[in-house]
Amino acid sequence: MATTPTRNAVPSEQYSDLRFNAGKLDEFITSTEDEYTDRLGITHLTVRGIQNSVADALLPENNLSDVQSTDSSLQNLGGGETGIAVFKGATPAAIRSTLLAAARGANSDITSITGLTTALAISQGGTGGTSASAARVALGAKANTGVTDASNAASGVTGEYLSGTLSSTSLTSGAVVNAASLVLTPGDWDVNGAVQFDNSATMTSMQAGTSLTSATSQGFPFNSAISTSISAGTQRMVLPARRVNVNANTTIYAVATAGFASGTCTVNGFISARRIR
Question: How far apart are CA 245 and CA 272, in angstroms?
Answer without folding.
Answer: 15
